[in-house]
Structures are given as structure tokens and as C-alpha cells.
Design a protein that fits this description.
This protein has about 270 residues and is of the alpha/beta class. It has 3 domains: about 5-80 and about 130-140, ATPase, nucleotide binding domain (Nucleotidyltransferase, domain 5), CATH 3.30.420; about 85-120, no CATH class; about 160-270, Nucleotidyltransferase, domain 5, CATH 3.30.420. The chain contains 8 helices and 13 strands. A 5-stranded mixed beta sheet has the order 3-2-1-4-8. Strands 11-10-9-12-13 form a 5-stranded mixed beta sheet, with helices on both faces. A 3-stranded antiparallel beta sheet has the order 5-7-6. Helix 5 packs parallel to helix 6 (about 230-240). The two termini are about 20 Å apart. The model has no long low-confidence stretch (mean pLDDT about 90).
Length: about 270
């Protein structure tokens, strides 16, 4: 389990691991053609204070040979709602915790990190899973890490290029979702919400639309993440919003289905 540093030992492979409190997923990439080769999800149930993350991850590493191979590059992606975007003009690296205290409870012992998005003049400030990073240090030695919201935001802003219409994207997970509203590479709104029912889901979408004066008869809503046209979440969105669709990934060339490509959108764009 190592990263190759010598050119004679290069494998031209990259490993990306997305971690959360419910499990991990990983993808192996061919760095020559920049295409994913393998994709797997490992659910571990919700990790509680009695669980040892080292034990849970050790089992995953034992059962999946891909995690123990050698790679030229390793990226760890932290998925949680402990993040906030800060415009570069207002950003000061010395006060990372102060930005997060507006939307989450922070402690003096918390470790803060940030990802730069210079093209869009903003930074994503967040709290990574330190215990998970420590585990990966033991496994890999060195690696890069970033927040899932950074990857999601960067890619959705890229997709909005040269489109002057305001568009809402909703990225769905099992118990939460992100709402992103963009207009020609400008971020208008980003927020993440927990939900339990389809009614929770549509309430937050309609509330966000109302705040931005988006007419449900006119604005375009694109759904991605863990969602399909047969889901209750999709059906309730279709009832209240005229222009609803799944994010079109038909042009993406990889060995996975369109549903898998949408569900693992963040991981596959890491």
C-alpha cells in the first residue's frame, strides 16, 4: 500500500476514496486516458461512538485488493455537511473556524481545512474526518484530500458555462441532499438539507426556489446522485415543478451504467 514516486515504478493509476459516516466508495482511474476502471461501494452502517473506524476500514482493505495496490496518486474525499463556501475577497486562512460557526457547531479542538477554487474566486472551508485521515496515513503514507462539496461545486459550475438561465441542481444521498443554483458559472445558492420523507425533499426545494424568485413553471431542475425516475423523490418533484429531469450523463464514456454514473458523480469527477 504505497504511492509510487519513481518514474520507473509508475503504474499510471489513481485511487480515489470517498468516505462518510456510513461507509466508503472508491474508484480506480487510468491516468493516461483519465478514465475510471473500477468502482465499488462498501456500506458499513452508521458509525457510532462505540465503533472503531480503524476496524471497519481494515475489513474493507482486507476484502478489496484494489485498496492494497500501488498507485501514483491517492485522493481521499470527505463527505459531510461541515463545510461552507467563502468568497476569496472575504477569506482569511487564520479564521477558518469563524466561517463555519454560522452553520455548524465548532469546537476549539476541531481541525479545519479548505479547498481553493481560484477560477470561481471562492474557497470551501470544512472539517475533515481526522481519524479517517490518520488511518489512511498509516496505510498510504501520503495522499491528497478534499471535500465532496468542492468537487460537486466545481463540476456543476463548469456545466453552467455560457448558460444565462438560472438552473437548480439537486444532488441526492440516502439521508441528505445538496441544492446548488448556478447561472453562467456564478454560484447563486448552495445548501445541504437532511430529509426523511419526499415531503421534506420538495419543501426545501420549493423554499429555496421561492427565496431566489424562481418560478416552478419555468426554472429547470436537474437531479443527480442516488435517484432515478421511479423514485418517490423524483415523482414528487415532478408534481410541483414543470421542468424536471435527471442529469444527462449519456455522453460520459465509462464502463458503468448511467445510474451509477449519476450516483457516484462526485467520486467519478475526483
Amino acid at each position: 500500500m504505497y504511492q509510487n514516486t519513481s518514474i520507473t515504478d509508475k503504474t499510471y493509476r489513481k485511487l480515489s476514496i470517498q468516505v462518510s459516516l456510513t461507509g466508503l466508495s472508491f474508484a480506480v482511474f487510468d491516468t493516461i486516458v483519465n478514465k475510471p476502471l473500477a468502482l465499488k461501494t462498501i456500506s458499513m452502517g452508521k458509525v457510532n461512538v462505540l465503533s472503531r473506524i480503524e476496524d471497519l476500514f481494515a475489513e474493507a482493505f482486507q476484502n478489496h485488493a484494489e485498496l492494497k495496490a500501488g498507485y501514483d496518486e491517492i485522493v481521499i474525499i470527505h463527505s459531510n455537511n461541515l463545510s461552507t463556501f467563502v468568497p476569496t475577497a472575504l477569506f482569511d486562512e487564520e479564521y477558518l473556524g469563524s466561517y463555519l460557526q454560522f452553520n455548524t457547531k465548532v469546537f476549539e479542538t476541531d481541525f479545519f481545512a479548505f479547498d481553493e477554487l481560484p477560477t470561481y474566486e471562492m474557497n470551501n472551508v470544512y472539517i475533515p474526518y481526522v481519524n479517517m485521515n490518520n488511518y489512511f496515513i498509516d496505510q498510504f503514507g501520503t495522499f491528497d484530500y478534499k471535500h465532496a462539496h468542492t468537487i460537486l461545486m466545481q463540476r456543476l459550475l463548469e456545466l453552467s458555462k455560457n448558460n444565462d438561465d438560472r438552473k437548480m441542481f439537486v444532488h441526492v444521498s440516502d439521508s441528505h441532499f445538496e441544492i446548488v443554483v448556478v447561472q453562467n458559472q456564478q454560484l447563486l445558492l448552495f445548501n445541504t438539507f437532511d430529509y426523511k420523507t419526499p415531503e421534506d425533499f420538495i419543501y426545501y426545494i420549493l423554499f429555496a426556489a421561492e427565496q431566489l424568485q424562481l418560478n416552478p413553471e419555468h426554472f429547470q431542475l436537474e437531479l443527480l446522485g442516488k435517484i432515478s425516475e421511479s423514485d418517490k423523490l423524483y415523482n414528487i418533484a415532478y408534481q410541483y415543478i414543470r421542468n424536471v429531469s435527471l442529469l444527462d450523463v449519456s455522453h460520459v464514456i465509462n464502463p458503468f451504467t448511467e445510474a451509477e454514473t449519476r450516483e457516484h458523480f462526485i467520486l467519478l469527477h475526483s
